[in-house]
Amino acid sequence: MSLTKFNNRNRLFPWNNLDLKSFLSSDDFFNSDFFAEEGLMPAMNVKEHHTDFEIEFAAPGFNKKDFEVTIEDNVLYVSGEKHMEKEEKEDDFTRKEFSYNSFKRSLRLPESVDVNKEIDATYKNGILKLNLLKKEPVNEIPKKVVEIN
To answer: Which position among 61, 90, 102, 132 has the lowest Cβ density within 10 Å, counted as fewest Cβ atoms?
Structure first.
């Protein structure tokens, strides 16, 4: 009778390397909102009213001075950047933490937005709110039917 060495690793680690790699690379393990590039974008709501567009960005933890809002070639650019450094000293322990958060979003504006008018921007309770006025409606010239003799 010959003896065969028994490998009991599968009992300790019931998954093989492919399963482990698949698990670690899946969204179940790493939260896609944090690691994915699009996850760093703040959520956005766009509401169209009769006279304006209201655009809201969910960007908690920022200050008003952390935002930059620009319009170029009928594209709205909204960016935010926040740096924070925190140091705590207590007895013999020292802890220093750095924090950095940034985002940039762009949105092509419809032709009905009047980019030459003032944009109202407010930041309150973690929501950046922009109001962009629409162009004045142009009175359409009614269709004229020409009678042929």
So the answer is: 90
Q: Is 118 helix (H, G, I), strand (E, B) or coil?
A: coil
Q: 111 and 87 in one domain?
A: yes
* SS3 state of residue 49: coil
The CA distance from 33 to 144, in Å, is: 57
User: What's the CATH number where 114 sits?
Assistant: 2.60.40.790
Cα separation, 84 vs 61, in Å, equals: 11
Tens-level pLDDT at each residue, the chain (149 residues): 555 555 555 555 554 555 555 655 555 544 444 444 444 688 999 999 999 999 999 999 899 999 999 999 999 999 999 887 777 777 777 777 777 888 999 999 999 999 999 999 999 999 999 999 999 877 888 888 999 98
CA angle centred on 50, ends 123 and 131, rounded to 5°: 15
Its domain, for residue 91, covers 43-133
